[in-house]
């Protein structure tokens, strides 16, 4: 890779003070149709029966499949992908970094639309909570690929999953990259295999952008660490193996398929990676050093906090149940499933806490159970608020209005609590784009040198 072009594509990332809505992204994509370099393909339909578009260009020996908005609440990938397409089309001397590119700017279109209420002010925790939406796990693109392992089988693929499956089968890309967010955690990576050549270069990139790498994995307990901030890609098979060994009762709660990376690696065997970037930073420590707080006491307090919040949400939902016909079905369905899953997981927490060894919590555990537990509670409150707001806009019911005002007060108190504990600050979108674009180009440069 010519370093000049690498520096140039990062320098040319536009400054954004907000995320763009789907219509705005689509208007930009329409301009690419005039290009003789870029080819637009319709590869399938979305969950709401809209065309799913992919853009192809470049003539390299290796092919990369880059997917934006793999989850409903992850709009950053739409900006990353349009920058990649636009810049390479306008800089032919860079020779597409000697790769062939397959780029899907917006995968989960329906869900992204549901999140657009916070795009114009992504720094606001209130807006984030009130307009946050993510499909339930069994309805997400990332967890509905066909899967069969031991006596478990999944065949209910989402339309977007079917479309990507066909692209992978037909194109057999050498690289798969889904552009994910890590929310409020530090940046971290998932790699399908150990790639030591990448770690120093990616750390240098993250340091230059003031985006520290996470020293712990915030997603799962069973992930293997290649190096601090770099973790082994995991899938449903790993969940099943882990549950069989440590939490057999949770095997009965599994309702999902394979993730895209898992299916791709099983069938094609290329290289897969994710660069998970946060939207917010905080000065609070999130490392593995020991805090002064006892872990068992911390977990019990966290469990109690979550239990009270879930019960409050359940009580509100019971009060507004007669008006469910006026609610947004997608949001209501997602919230009901999420709360049911949270209640189920809380049933296992008590048993888990009893078996925890007597020790002090790490700073990372403290962050998860003293900060993120309140953030999760805030998101639930915001979603309940939105359900009620949709109902009130239709029904104009005084009872609903009174509940809306009550939950608004509760949301404000929750935000104050979070700000006191963490003091989150939004990370400029330009830096986030640079982190993901730079990561893609570093990985493709390393893979290009391999047989």
List keywords for this structure.
two-stranded antiparallel ribbon; ten-stranded mixed β-sheet; single chain; 14 helices; alpha/beta; 16 strands; Aminopeptidase; 2 domains; 451 residues
Explain what you see.
It is a single chain. The chain has 451 residues and is of the alpha/beta class. The chain has two domains: 3-280 and 427-448, Aminopeptidase (3-Layer(aba) Sandwich), CATH 3.40.630.10; 290-423, no CATH class. The chain has helices at residues 3-11, 22-31, 76-90, 109-115, 125-130, 159-171, 196-208, 236-246, 260-267, 295-320, 329-355, 363-395, 398-422, 429-448, and strands at residues 39-45, 51-57, 62-67, 99-104, 147-149, 152-154, 175-178, 181-183, 188-191, 225-227, 230-232, 271-278, 280-281, 290-294, 360-362, 425-426. Strands 1, 2, 3, 4, 7, 8, 9, 10, 11 and 12 form a ten-stranded mixed sheet that branches. A two-stranded antiparallel sheet has the order 5-6. A two-stranded antiparallel ribbon has the order 13-16. The longest helix has 33 residues, at 363-395. The chain is globular and about 60 Å long. The chain starts with a helix and ends with a helix.
Largest sheet: 10 strands, mixed
Q: In the CATH scheme, what's the topology name of the largest domain?
A: Aminopeptidase
- Compute the number of helices: 14
Order of helices and strands: HHEEEHEHHEEHEEEHEEHHEEEHHEHHEH
- The poorly predicted ranges are none
Strand content: 15-25%
CATH class of the largest domain: Alpha Beta
**Structure classification:** alpha/beta
The whole-number mean of residue pLDDT values reads 94
Radius of gyration of CA atoms, rounded to a whole number:
22 Å
CATH homologous superfamily caption of the largest domain: Zn peptidases
Number of domains: 2
Number of strands: 16
**CA distance, first residue to last residue:** 16 Å
Shape: globular
The residue fraction in helices comes out at: 40-55%
Named at the architecture level, the CATH assignment of the largest domain is: 3-Layer(aba) Sandwich
């Amino acid at each position: 890779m010519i370093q000049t072009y690498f520096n140039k594509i990062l320098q040319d990332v536009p400054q954004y003070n907000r995320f763009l809505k789907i219509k705005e992204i689509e208007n930009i994509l329409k301009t690419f149709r005039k290009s003789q370099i870029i080819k637009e393909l319709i590869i399938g339909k979305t969950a709401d029966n809209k065309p799913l578009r992919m853009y192809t260009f470049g003539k390299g020996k290796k092919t990369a499949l880059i997917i934006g908005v793999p989850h409903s609440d992850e709009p950053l990938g739409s900006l990353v992908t349009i920058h990649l397409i636009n810049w390479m089309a306008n800089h032919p001397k860079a020779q597409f970094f000697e790769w062939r590119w397959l780029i899907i700017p917006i995968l989960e279109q329906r869900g992204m639309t549901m999140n657009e209420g916070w795009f114009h002010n992504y720094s606001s925790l209130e807006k984030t909570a009130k307009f946050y939406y993510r499909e339930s796990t069994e309805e997400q693109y990332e967890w509905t690929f066909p899967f069969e392992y031991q006596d478990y089988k999944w065949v209910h693929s989402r339309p977007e999953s079917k479309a990507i499956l066909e692209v992978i089968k037909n194109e057999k890309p050498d690289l798969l990259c889904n552009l994910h967010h890590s929310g409020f955690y530090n940046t971290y990576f998932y790699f399908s295999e150990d790639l030591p050549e990448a770690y120093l270069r990616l750390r240098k990139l993250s340091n230059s952008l003031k985006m520290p790498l996470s020293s712990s994995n915030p997603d799962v307990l069973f992930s293997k660490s290649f190096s601090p901030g770099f973790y082994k890609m995991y899938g449903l098979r790993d969940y099943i193996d882990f549950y069989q060994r440590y939490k057999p009762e949770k095997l009965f709660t599994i309702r999902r398929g394979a993730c895209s990376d898992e299916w791709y690696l099983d069938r094609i065997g290329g290289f897969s990676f994710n660069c998970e970037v946060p939207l917010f930073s905080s000065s609070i420590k999130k490392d593995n050093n020991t805090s002064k707080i006892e872990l068992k006491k911390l977990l019990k307090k966290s469990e109690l906090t979550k239990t009270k919040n879930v019960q409050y949400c359940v009580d509100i939902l019971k009060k507004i149940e007669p008006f469910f016909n006026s609610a947004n079905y997608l949001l209501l369905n997602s919230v009901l499933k999420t709360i049911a899953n949270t209640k189920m997981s809380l049933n296992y927490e008590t048993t888990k806490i009893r078996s925890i060894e007597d020790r002090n919590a790490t700073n990372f555990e403290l962050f998860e159970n003293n900060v993120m537990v309140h953030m999760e509670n805030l998101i639930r409150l915001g979603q309940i608020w939105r359900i009620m707001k949709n109902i009130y806009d239709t029904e104009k019911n005084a009872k609903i209005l009174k509940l809306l005002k009550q939950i608004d007060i509760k949301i404000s108190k929750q935000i104050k609590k979070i700000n006191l504990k963490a003091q989150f600050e939004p990370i400029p979108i330009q830096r986030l784009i640079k982190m993901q674009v730079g990561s893609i180009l570093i990985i493709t440069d390393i893979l290009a040198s391999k047989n």
